[in-house]
């Protein structure tokens, strides 16, 4: 009994010490700052495009922070249980590679990219065992040589699975409505699904002299002691042809498959070390493959958020608005208001002015069936009852399809583009052409 209590006391002390070390590390605070800056920039883009605040940047940032904390506990327990190790000096090395990659693309700020590149670097360094033995370069090389790449690839696979669960759980709440430049100069509605979660992990120190023994036999080695490793997980994608919830489900499923594939590759590398380089390459290729496959899929879909000849397509619904209370959903079509068929951009405002105190709506749901709604209108209600309609084909302002860079996020650059008059005129000239039937989302 006494031995068990002593072991428990030792582990509580170890976890407490590691938590204090996390608080004095700059890396977790960098991750927190990035998340807050990102959602601040998202709010500015919403105001530019739809002229209303759909999200609260503080609320969104806090949701991602505590979600990351919730994910960190089971991940850390799994990592400690498996015996995944990391030298303290390698924490800075991982973050140095991650921050360098982030300068090229924000989506490269991913653990799988960093570990994949470090795995390749360690393979190359193995051909020069007698080089880089002193100075700061020797410190970096020593940290790289001490890294257990297969074990860290196992962790990358687990992080992919956590990412998949978070994407599935928070789903459509991650989506930001966009006005995007579509085919043949027309503007269409769409969504950017992008989210980042800061996850403070705890890993075992590598076994060494005086490291002590663990109370269990880990699969991947490890000593007695913990090191803090904050990581940032997340994804970025744009859709024009799917509803946000459907797109989030697809992203979640693909992240889960990638995580399982990465776990398999890492397990093979841990079993036979020559497979470490292919496993590191797999980490890079899987992540890039997810991004490019999603873009290829979108190019084959018809735009879902364009107006039909009769009716107005709903792109988004403001939280807490009359439209949300009535049960109107993104992707549905507003057919009639107060008996007036909506056929033009100003028709909704004209129909609502017919009776400023009450409205009756006919809405076509996602199954193609009509539903009839009615509600009183009060002072202070949104002028469109909280509905954000799909853009007109000649909308003069669009958002860039590419996700923002790190300097755009820091500078709160919204990435909106004002189209040239010739492009607007071309879109107006095509406005009467038949619209292809949107893909069902």
List the helices and strands and how they pair.
Blueprint: H1 2-24, H2 26-50, H3 57-82, H4 88-102, H5 111-125, H6 135-146, H7 149-170, E1 175-181, E2 187-204, E3 226-239, H8 244-271, H9 276-299, E4 312-317, H10 322-326, E5 333-337, E6 340-341, H11 347-353, E7 358-364, E8 370-376, E9 387-389, E10 397-399, H12 406-410, E11 416-418, H13 421-429
Antiparallel strand pairs: 1-2, 2-3, 4-5, 4-9, 5-6, 5-7, 7-8, 10-11
What does this structure look like?
- The chain is of the alpha+beta class.
- It folds into two domains: 298 residues, no CATH class; 118 residues, PDZ domain (Pdz3 Domain).
- 49% of the residues lie in helices and 17% in strands.
- The chain has 13 helices and eleven strands.
- Strands 4, 5, 6, 7, 8 and 9 form a six-stranded antiparallel β-sheet that branches. A three-stranded antiparallel β-sheet has the order 1-2-3, with helices on both faces. Strands 10-11 form a two-stranded antiparallel sheet.
- Helix 2 runs antiparallel to helix 3, helix 5 packs antiparallel against helix 9 and helix 7 runs parallel beside helix 9.
- The chain is elongated and about 80 Å long.
